[in-house]
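thread: overnight batch results

M.L. [08:02]
morning all. the overnight job finished for the chain we discussed friday. pasting input first so we're all looking at the same thing
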Amino acid sequence: MDDVLALDATGRARTVREGQVSPRELVEAAIARIEACDGELNAVVHRRFGRALAELDAIPSEAPFRGVPILLKDLGWRQAGEPYNAGSRVYDGLPVEEDGHGVVRLRQAGFVVLGRTNTPEFGSTITTEPVAFGPTRNPYRPGHSAGGSSGGSAAAVAAGMVALATASDGGGSIRIPASFCGLVGLKPTRGRSSFAPTQGEGWNGFSCPGFVTRTVRDTAAALDLISGYVLGDPYDAPALPRPLAEEVGADPGRLRVGFVTEHPRGDVPEDPELTEAVTRVATLLETLGHHVAPGGPEALGDPDFPARFGAIVSDNLAAQVESLGATRGRLVELEELEPRNAAMVNSARMRSAADHLLAAQWIDGFRRRMAAWWSAGNDLLLMPSAGVRPFALGWIPPEDLSLGFGRTAQAVAYTAPVNATGQPAVSLPLHMTSDGLPVGVQLVAAAGREDLLIRVAAQIEAAAPFEHAAMRDR
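M.L. [08:03]
and the structure it wrote out:
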């Protein structure tokens, strides 16, 4: 089964259709891999192996991913009858009554859910080290972070436990773990997939559901499954010309690409590893026939952005905590939260509704200023996936809030602006640091242009195949 476990989800599904392996064999092999690897990595915080095996016989034979194992991030991605914690002690494993929209679509496609993956409390930071479940470790170096907030999912895929796992991205939470763990991670256009049935949006539209995968074709196929408007959604993404899976291998044409290596915060020096990652990919894109030149949106480095973005995230976190209190029947006290989240909720409670709306209106203007760069004839923006290289566990200190918030802002400087604009962006695993840690590069397209991202990402993947050393070494 080692050869099968080395396949991506699309390849595994093909082996089932061709009768080379049974769904049960696929699932049992993934379970064995989780049991062998997860004791060290701590990626899977809830296991449902018995129920997964019992569900196999009910999967229709025509389901395109029949028997392919998957893990769900324990933030969003609710599954009926399974506990839900969102990385927090506060939820207490409150049972879920109804599958989320994305989970319905994945199960209809034949995926088998093996469990739920670790996430920081409420997904509010970029390292997965929750008090409730302990840290998730990076498969490339267990003393390092797998990133966040989709760190559990990224570690599981990088270690070969599953071929893909669900994720979400409100400020970089798909792209940063993908960068740290050497994976493909695409944040879709706002509204591309639904938060139904329980929500209309996440973090004022900043957050989007998605996946971490090992191949571009798996990312495309998985996004096809969950994409689409659901009645009552607050907005819809521009229609794609055809399924994203059909864009893999399609000619992207000659694109105009700008690239940025200077950190958006002027007080942060360039990291030579991040600069090398971007410049190497810029050169690769030139050899593939694209027009590549330095430059990007001036608004990217607006010094007022972090405060506006942070206010909106804090306000949404405070609302989530209030809602949780109502659901469980007693108020959530600040002392029940991790210090970072307690501080964010407390700051939100001191702002008025007018303050929140003013921050949202500022973001509206920021979105238009950013979009002007693409409308001026540019196709893609190339920059680091994260403002930092993979860091050791504890680098975001839980008690030193000033240092922790400052380091988080440094890390998300390339990702959070794209959440605010609602544009699609993909992190690709194209660089290894001199000490053997992955560093991703990010490509950002205009709103609605996931098709262009998939085309060029597949072109890059074919020219410079992605390495997955962590999976091979385990």
